[in-house]
Structure formats: structure tokens, C-alpha cells
Amino acid sequence: MGNDKVLDMRIQIVILIVGMFVSWSYQVRAESELKNDTNLPSTVETDIENMDEPLPTLPSVERAEVSEKIVKDIQIRFLNNKDKWVDEKGRPIEGRTQKNFIIDNLRLKPGQIFRNDLFQKDVERLRRLNSFDKVNFVLEEDDTSLNIVYYIKENKFPSWNFGGGDNGDVGLYGKVGYRDANINGLNEQLDTSVQVSGKDVQFDTSFISPYRRGEPSRLGYSFRAFRERDLSRTFNDEIKLSNGSTAREGRFGGSFAVLKSFDDWDAALGLNYTRISLRDRDYNLARVDRLGSPLSVSGTGIDDLVTVSFAVSKDERDRRSNPTKGSLLTLSTEQAIPIGLGKIASNRLLANYILYVPVTFIGNSSTENTEMIALNLQAGTNIGEFPPANAFDLGGLNSVRGYGGGRVASARSYGLASVEYRFPILQRVGGVLFADFGSDFGSSKTVLGEPGILRGKPGSGFGYGLGLRVKSPFGLIRGDLGISDQGEVKFEVTTGQRF
User: How confident is the model at residue 67 (pLDDT cuts 50, 70, 90)?
Assistant: First the structure.
């Protein structure tokens, strides 16, 4: 990597850190953790109607104590920033989420015999909703029945975020984002961002109206529209274009999907359109690289992808934000319809599995910072002729760490395995030891134009290292120092866990 690129990477890291601390929102969404994360329900002896103190940490109750009791009532109470469910005048805190929507998401209903397994799944399901920051509960018991009281603290929406930076493609840019994950009190989500530079305007907007268990005849739906561009990871600068420029990859399109849940599985059926274009630094179309290898199926520098997609997922994590145990499995297929430039008719298959296992090697975990082993397994393949820009690019901070983006392989098929040991250091600071391995299974030579082979990408790679995770009011900051099996060392900073 040249000195200019090293400087550019340093500038982006500094701007990322500074941008996160100058980000502003209507209401800061701190990542508060749950006070009660035991596997079993909890109960207290108290006059719950007069409770105006913050909800305490509650003792566990054995499964047998409530196994034969009838659920008499389910109540929803919202918490304010002080974790109180009534205000200074004794009035209940009003939440933004509709209470009927919350109850519709529950499997355990009034009149049923209490079952610990259903109750635990209900709590975890609520904790996975984007609109909630905390979900706690109290069981009020008598000799034959019980009331379930949920205490819910909502995330603060809507939020605005502002940022900026400098990259090797568009130069200086400014970015603004807007997010609301609880529209109409029904967990409907709008997420939009716009990036403006002297060369380009990019945007990404999505809306999700999820499937509602209380309205089984109504399908959920989602749509997305986007326009983006960046330096190509497939056609990186090992081989430039004929005019000496590094290839830029632009994508423009949209999608629409219908959503439905079947027991523990969530499904999505979608129609998608993406136009992929390869261009030079001045954004002129590029048909071939310096060696004359094609950059697109159509031969024009542009490929159109019209696809029908189907995906299913099974989410068994204990919560969406910072899960401490459980798993997430996602399977998908995407069939291209031969319409537009390139007349592509390929099929793309993907599988992704994540597992979280709590451990006690050092034994000082907390709900803020849980000690665990996290495992991620991925695999995918393209069947038929597909745009080379749509190859699986292995390498980078969200793939094989220690390698640069797309430096391991640009493949038709791939497998990726990552394991992390996450451990607490301070209350809001954690450490990570990680190892990643990715392989193209020899499939890079079957990609049109063989971009990975010609650029000397090894096809498989191993990376390992250590990192820090810092929980800030603006989200989780991740810094990873990765070492590749070829001796390359990379330190990269971004936001959010690797998986």
C-alpha cells in the first residue's frame, strides 16, 4: 500500500472517531443494558401498584413454583429515564408503543397455564424488538394464579446523525442520517441517509413494516432505494484501467419484499433491481481493464440484475442488542431474471450462522460486558454466469481481518469461519481475541475475466489478532489489530461488533 493510501486510511480513522463524538440526535440513545438477565422468571413481594422507585434486580424463581398456575392478567408498564413507571404526580408513564402490539407478540396469554419455556421466549422476543432498550418483568402470584407485569424502556426515536470524511474515491464528503424504529407505535422502521460530495450524491433509504403476529392475515412489507459508489474491491488497483485509474463500482436500484412469520421462522419474499456500473476516476464507463479483461457480462461496463429473492431466518438470541447467548440462522436464495443489460440468469445461495456461548474463564462477567465465545460460519455460491463485480470478495475488517478489503479472493463460491473470545476489561470496555479463515474453494478461476487470479489474490487466507470494544453514548466502537498469514498487519476502527 502506498503512502497516499496509508495517509487516506489514517484520515478516515480520525474522522470516524471525531464524527462519532460530534454526532447529535434528538435524544441520545445510550446502550443501556438489562437489569435482569437470568434464564428464569423473577418475582418480588411488594405492593406493585404503589411502586415508584426504580425497578430492582429481582431474585430468580424456580420453575416448579409457577408451573401449575393460571395466567390471570398481563400488564404493560413503561419506564422513564430514571427507570420509574410513574411520574412525580403518580401518573403512569405513557409509552410510544401500542400495548396491543406488545401483547400480540406474546405466546403466553391470559387464561393459559403458565409455562416457563413460553414465558422465556416471550421475554426474548420483546428484547429483540428494535423499539425497546430494556425489557424487565415481575410475576405477581397468589395460590392459584399470577399476573405478568412487563416493564419496558423504549429506545429514543427519532434520531438524526451527522458526519463527514475523506476517501480515495469522492474526496471530502458530508453525510446526514435519520432513523426511527417505532413509527405508529408498531415497530415500523424508517432508516435513511444522504451523502454529498463534490463528485457525487449517494443515498440509502429503507422502510420496514414488520409482520404482526396479532394480525395473521396481514403480511408485513419492506422497501429500499439506494445509490452508492466506491472503489471496487473486485477490480482493485493491482491492475488498473487503461487510463491508469482505479476502477470505481457504482450501484443503483431498489427492492420490495413481503414478510411473514411461521412459528420461530421469519420469511421474506422479494423483487429486486440493481444496476452495476464500472467507471474510472471521472466516472466514465469502463468496459475492460488494462489487460483487456471484461468488467461486466454485457461488455458495456453495465450489468442489470433483476432478481426474485427468498430468505428465512431463525433468531434465538436472548436480545438483539449485545446478545449474551443463543443463535441466529439465515438462509437465502436469489434467482436472476434475464432482463436488461447482460441478460443474467444466475442463482445466488447464501447461509449464515451465528452462535453465542457464555463462558466463565475469568469469571467477572456482567450484563454490561459478558464473557463469551462467539462463532460465525458463512457459505455462499453463484450458479450460472454472474457479473464479476458481484463475486464474493474475501478480506477486510468484516471478513478475514489482517487483509485489506477483497485481498484474499474474488470468488464464485466461498466459506468463512470466524471465532471470537470476548471478555470484560472495565464496565464499558471489553477485549476480543479473534481468528478468521476464508476460502474460495478454488472457484476464483471460474469468475468472468478471472479478476482475483490475475491480481494475485491467494484464494484463501487466515487472520488473527486482538481488539477493543468501547461502549459509548453513540454506539459500540470497535478497534481490531489483525495479522494475516502473509505477515500483513492492519489496525482498523469502525462501529458495531463483527457479528
Answer: low
Q: Which residues contact 101 (CB under 8 A, 6 or more apart)?
A: 185, 186, 187, 212, 214
| Whole-angstrom distance, CA of residue 127 vs CA of residue 106 | 12
State the fold for domain 48-154.
Ubiquitin-like (UB roll) (3.10.20)
Give the residue extent of every domain in the chain: 48-154, 210-495
Does residue 335 or residue 318 have the better pLDDT? 335
pLDDT at 461: 97
**Residue located via cell numbers 398481563:** 74
| HEC profile of the chain | CCHHHHHHHHHHHHHHHHHHHHCCCCCCCCCCCCCCCCCCCEECCCCHHHCCCCCCCCCECCHHHCCCCEEEEEEEEECCCCCCCECCCCCECCCCCCHHHHHHCCCCCCCCECCHHHHHHHHHHHHCCCCEEEEEEEEEECCCEEEEEEEEEECCCCEEEEEEEEECCCEEEEEEEEEEEEECCCCEEEEEEEEEECCCEEEEEEEEECCCCCCCCCCEEEEEEEEEEEECCCCCCCCCCCCCCCCEEEEEEEEEEEEEEECCEEEEEEEEEEEEEEECCCCCECCECCCCCECCCCCCCEEEEEEEEEEEEEECCCCCCCCCCEEEEEEEEEEEECCCCCCCCCEEEEEEEEEEEECCCCCCCCCCCCCEEEEEEEEEEEECCCCHHHCEEECCCCCCCCCCCCCCEEECEEEEEEEEEEEEEECCEEEEEEEEEEECCCHHHHCCCCHHHHCCCCCEEEEEEEEEEEEECCEEEEEEEEEECCCCEEEEEEECCCC
| Reported CATH class of domain 210-495 | mainly beta
Query: What is the reported pLDDT for 143?
Result: 83
Task: Give the span between the Cα atoms of 260 and 215, in whole angstroms.
Answer: 11
| pTM, rounded to two decimals | 0.83
| Number of other CB atoms surrounding residue 90 within 10 Å | 8
